Amino acid sequence: MTTRRHHTLALAFLALALAAAAAPPQLAPLPQVTILATGGTIAGTAATSTATVGYTAATVGVAALIAAVPELAAVARVSGEQVFQIASENMTPAHWLILARRVDELLARDDVAGVVITHGTDTLEETAYFLDLVVKSAKPVVLVGAMRPSTAISADGPMNLYNAVALAASREAVGRGVMVCMNDRIDAARDVTKTNTVALDTFRSPELGILGVMEGGRPAFYRTAERAHTTATEFDVTNVKELPNVGVALAYAGSGRVAIDALVAAGVKGIVNAGVGDGSLSVEAKAALVEARKRGIVVVRASRIPGGAVARNGEANDDALDFVVADNLSPQKARILLALALTRTADTREIQRMFRRY
Ligand code: SIN
C-alpha cells in the first residue's frame, strides 16, 4: 500500500470518527404501552368542577384520557383502545373474557411492553383478579381508575394514569402478576379491595399490604405476591365461551335459606356462601347448602369478614359435607376462582387445592 493511500484511509477514518462524535446519541425507544379503556369515573364528567357525586361515569374516550396527560410521552409510547365504555357495575364475566383475550393478544407482540386498563373502581378488583388468574404473559398488566370525575378540581385520574403507565412500562414490574395502581400505591390483584365509597385512597390490601409505591414515576417494590398467577396458573380461557354460573349468598341475622334456594333455582353450578365469622352457617343455610351439594352444585364457604381465612373443618365439617373453604379470598373473588375452577373440574378436592394455590 502506498503512503498516499495510507493517508487517504486515515483521513476517511478521521472523518467517520468526527461524524460519529457529532451525531446525537441513539437513545433506545421508550417502551410501548397500550391503554385499554373500559369506562368508569376516570372517564366520567360532571356538570360542575366541584361535583364529585352525581356525575356520569364513562363518557370521555380513550384519546381524550391520553391527551389530558401529555407527561405520558416521557415514560412510554402510548396507544389507546376503547374496549368498552361502561360504569363498572355493568361489568360481567362476558366482558372479562373479551378483555383477557385482547390483553393476551397485545402482550404476545414483541413491540408491546405492558398494558394498562382504565376501569370503574366499583368492580375493578374483580376484573383484576380474573385477569391475574388467566393472562398468559409475565409482562405488566396494571388496572387503574379514579374516584373523582375528570371534570373535578384535583381530579385523581391523570396522576393515577401517569403512574399506571409508568409502572406498566417498567422492567421492575415484569413477573409480578396483575397489579392495581391508584393513589401512588401498587397492590396485588388478589389482595386489593375497595374500602371506602368516596375517599381517594380507597384501594387497600388490608391484611397483606401493598406491593410497593410509585415515586417520581418509578416503582419501588417491597414484596412479591406469593400465590400463583398469570403464566403459573392452569386456567386458559382462550376457547371458553361462557364462564360457569356461580352466585354469592350473603348471610346476616335471619337470612335463612332464601338466597341459597334462589341461586339453586337459577341453575348455578357453584355457590359461594358469604357466611358470618369464620364462615359459620345458620341451621337453615346449612340445610339448603347440603341440598345444593346433593344436586351437584359446588359449595364454597367464605366469610363476609374482610380479614382472615375460613378454617377447613372449623365451623362446619367440610370433609363430611363435601364443601370447599375460600381461604382468605373475599366472597366476590372466591366466586371468580370457583367459576374458573369449574372450567377445569367438578372434583371438590381439586377445587380445594386450587383455593390453596391461588
Ligand atoms: C364505576 O365503577 O364505574 C363508577 C365508580 C368509579 O369508577 O369510581
Properties at a glance:
Rossmann fold, alpha/beta, binds succinic acid, 358 residues, eight-stranded mixed β-sheet, four-stranded parallel β-sheet
What does this entry look like structurally?
The chain has 358 residues and is of the alpha/beta class. The protein has helices spanning 3-22, 62-67, 93-107, 124-134, 157-168, 258-265, 283-294, 318-321, 331-342, 348-357, and strands at 32-39, 77-86, 114-118, 141-144, 179-182, 185-188, 193-194, 203-204, 212-215, 218-221, 246-250, 270-275, 298-303, 324-325. α4 (124-134) packs parallel to α9 and α9 (331-342) crosses α10 (348-357). The strands form 3 sheets. Strands 2-1-3-4-5-6-9-10 form an 8-stranded mixed sheet. It contains 10 helices and 14 strands. It binds succinic acid. Succinic acid (SIN) binds next to loops.
Break the fold down into its secondary structure elements and pairings.
Blueprint: H1 3-22, E1 32-39, H2 62-67, E2 77-86, H3 93-107, E3 114-118, H4 124-134, E4 141-144, H5 157-168, E5 179-182, E6 185-188, E7 193-194, E8 203-204, E9 212-215, E10 218-221, E11 246-250, H6 258-265, E12 270-275, H7 283-294, E13 298-303, H8 318-321, E14 324-325, H9 331-342, H10 348-357
Parallel strand pairs: 1-2, 1-3, 3-4, 4-5, 11-12, 12-13, 13-14
Antiparallel strand pairs: 5-6, 6-9, 7-8, 9-10
The protein binds succinic acid.
Residues 40-41, 57, 87-88, 120-122, 145, 147 line the site of succinic acid (SIN).
